[in-house]
Amino acid sequence: MTEELKWIKAIKKKSSEQAANQLIHKYYNEIFGFVYKQTLDQELTKDITQDIFISMLRTIQGFDGRASFLTWLYKVANSRLIDYYRPNIISKIKRRN
């Protein structure tokens, strides 16, 4: 079992804060970079990245291992980005009409 899967298991079973911190530390820079490419705003990127990792911890019970953890985490990240931009897109469409 990889270290990553041990951390996930510890989070699921014991709500291990240490395992959560290690998992976040491992992927923080990669997710931050992904979000920054979408926002081009460092402060906004920090906020959205934090929200992504909070969402990850809230929904990690749903990670079933069919895909890699990183693939699953990118799905979480993409969903958070869509949630952020959705109200902005809707208001722009309403203004055009």
Give average pLDDT, whole number: 91
Report on the biggest sheet: none
Fraction in beta strands: under 5%
Order of helices and strands: HHHH
Number-wise, the strands total: 0
Shape from CA axes? elongated
Short description:
This protein is an all-alpha fold and 97 residues long.
Task: Explain what this protein looks like in three dimensions.
The chain is mainly α and 97 residues long. It is 84% helix and 0% strand. It has four helices and no strands. It has helices at 3-14, 17-39, 42-59, 69-96. Helix 1 (3-14) packs across helix 2 (17-39) and helix 2 crosses helix 4 (69-96). The protein is elongated and about 55 Å long. The chain starts with a helix and ends with a helix. The mean pLDDT is 91.
List keywords for this structure.
single chain; 97 residues; mainly alpha; 0% strand
Topology of this structure?
Blueprint: H1 3-14, H2 17-39, H3 42-59, H4 69-96
Helix pairs in contact: 1-2, 2-3, 2-4, 3-4
